[in-house]
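User: Hello! My lab partner asked me to get a predicted holo structure for this protein. The small molecule is magnesium ion, SMILES included with the sequence. Please write out the C-alpha cells.
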Amino acid sequence: MERIILHCDCNNFYASVESLFNPKLRGRPFAVAGDPDQRHGIVLAKNYEAKRYGVKTGNPLWLAKQLCPDIIFVPPHFDLYMNFSQTIRNIYYEYTDRVEPYGMDECWLDVTGCVPAFDGGKMIADELRERIKRELGITISAGVSFNKVFAKLASDYKKPDATTVIPYESFREFVWPLPVGDLLFVGRATARIFERKCIRTIGDLANTSRETLKSWLGKWGEVLWLYANGYDSTPVARFGSQPEIKSIGNSTTLPRDLTELEEVKITFMVLSESVAARLRKHGFQCETVQISIRGTDLSWIERQGKLEAPSCDSTSIYKKALELFIKNWVPGKPIRSLGVRGCNLSSRQVCQLSLMKSVQQIQRREKIEEVLDGLRFRFGNKIVVRGTMLADKSLSDMDPQTDYPHLVLSTVHSQI
Ligand SMILES: [Mg+2]
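Assistant: Hello! Below are the C-alpha cells for the protein in complex with magnesium ion.
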C-alpha cells in the first residue's frame, strides 16, 4: 500500500515566535542571537527581511551587522519556543499518532489510512497550514510524498506557507533535476565528494550504480542510492515509541595488558569517541554510560552511571567511563580488555538548546565533534587525533570493535 507521509516545517521558527510577542520587530530585519555577549554570538535564526540582506543562520553577529547595518538582535527564549513546538505537535496528533519530531520545528506525519487516497494528504497538509496560521500565528511549509525523504524534500521546496506534493508517478521528473545537496543527509562533505565525481543532481546519484556508490561511501553510499531512487521505507515513529536500538557499545581487546592509568585513559578516549560518533550517526543521545573491564585473570566487571544530561559528546562519555573505572578497579591490576557503552538512548533533539550553562557547553562540544565526524568521513579516522592519544601510538591506532554490528546494519536505514 502506498504510504502518505507529510513533513511539516515551521518557517523561521524562532524569529516567527519572537515577532508574535514583539510587534515592533515586524517588517524590520532582525535576528535571534545565540549569545547575549554579542561580540561572540551567532545568528540562531533570522526573519525574511534580514535574509534579504544575505544574513544566514550561523553567521557571527559582526558579519550580520556588516551585511545589514539596521539589523536588530534579540535574545532567544527557548522556553517559549518549546511551548510553541509542543502546541504544534499536539495539533499534529489530532490527525495521526504517527508523528516523529525532527528537531524542534519539524515533524513527519504518517497519515496513511487517515484519508481514502493520496490526494487526501494534500488536503490535510493545507488544513494544517491554515490551522497553525490561524491558531498560532505562524506559517509552516508542508511536503507530501510516499516516503520520508521526499516529504522532507517537498517541504523544503517552497517556503513560506506552501504545500508541495511529490507523487510516486512523477517523482523522477520532480526530484531528479534537483541539486544532489538537496537530498536529506547529503551534507557538505558528501556533496563535495559527489562534485569531484561529477554527480550534480539527485538524478545523477540515482543513475550511478549502487556498487560504485558503495565503493566511494561504504554502506552510506547504498543508503543514499536507495533514497534517490525513492526506495526509502523507513517508518514514521509512533508517538512515544522508543528507538529499536537499546544501546551502542564498543570494546577492544588490548594490544598488550594494561596496568597504567594513562593507558586506560587513552583507551577509554578512543572507545568513547567511536561510541559518540555512532550515537550521532544514528541520531541518538545516551543517558547512561556503562563500562566493562576484563582482567588478565579473566575477572570481569560491568558498571554503569548516569550522565548529567543525555548526550552524544565523547568528552562526557569519556569522563563518566573513567570515573566508573577509578571507582571500581583496583589500581595496577592488569587489564586485558575494555568496553564502553551508551545506554538509555533517546532521539537527539538537535535544535533543543538548553539554558543550562553546562548543557550548553556539552552541546557546543557535540557541534565541534560533528564537524570532526565530517572530516573523518572525508579524510579517514586518523585525520583528527586528540593530543592524549599521541602519547601511545599502539593504543591510539586501535580499531574498536563494534559489539553489535548486526543491530547497526539493520537500523542504519530505519533511523533517518
Ligand atoms: Mg524550520
